Amino acid sequence: MGSCASGYSLGAAPSTYWNFLGIVGAGLAIALREPLLSIAGRIAIFAGHICTVEDRIEISHMSGDVIDIGFIYTRIMDIGNWIGGDQYTGRIIQIANAQIFGPLCSTTPETSHTFGTK
Q1: Number of domains in the chain
Q2: Contact call for residues 66 and 52 (beta carbons, < 8 A)
Q3: What is the CATH number of the domain that holds 108?
Q4: For the segment 43-67, what is each residue's pLDDT rounded down to a tens digit?
Q5: Residue 41 domain-assigned (yes or no)
Q6: Which of 74, 97, 104, 107 has the CA that lies 20 to 30 A from 38?
Q7: Taking a C-beta distance cutoff of 8 angstroms, is the pair 45, 74 a contact?
Q8: Residue pair 25/19 in contact by the 8 Å Cβ criterion
Q9: Model pLDDT, residue 33
Q10: β-bridge partners, 4
Q11: In this structure, is residue 69 part of a structural domain?
């Protein structure tokens, strides 16, 4: 018999399919919020020159020197709060790039000036 004269060949109105796709899209956006924010954070780091490798940064009360900026995570060598001076603790902290949109206090080793939103 084929398709109906009204154009509903799959048995439901086309708006039903669009509603379903909208709900699935919203669910995916909620489920993938952190990875998408991390990717956006990486783009912001790259495009805005927010920090580079060997910069000293402080995010969420963790401070250290950037050793790697990945697509999802940034890794810093922790200098810790419980060791005097600027000595490394030996810990490598992996921070999601999505945290770049929060408060950031960054000090570069060359110029020792502070920038960001604190």
Answers
A1: 1
A2: yes
A3: 2.30.30
A4: 998 998 888 898 888 887 788 889 9
A5: yes
A6: 107
A7: yes
A8: no
A9: 92
A10: none
A11: yes
| Nearest-angstrom CA–CA distance, 83 and 92 | 15
Q: Do the domain assignments include residue 51?
A: yes
Residue written as tokens 């945290």?
Answer: 99
Given a contact cutoff of 8 angstroms between Cβ atoms, the answer to whether 51 and 115 are in contact is no
In a domain, 109, yes or no: yes
Tokens of 113: 């000036």
Task: Tell me the whole-structure pTM to 2 decimals.
Answer: 0.65
Instruction: Provide the token pair at 25.
Output: 């899209």
- Residue found under tokens 């110029």: 111
From 114, 30, 37, select the one nearest 73 (Cα to Cα): 37
Length of the chain: 118
Range of the domain at 56: 33-115
Q: Angle at Cα 84 formed by Cα 80 and Cα 89, nearest 5°?
A: 35
Q: Which helix (H) or strand (E) holds 31?
A: helix 14-31
Helix axes 14-31 and 33-48, enclosed angle (nearest 10): 70
Helix (H) or strand (E) holding 116: none
The arithmetic mean of pLDDT across residues 73-84, rounded, is: 80
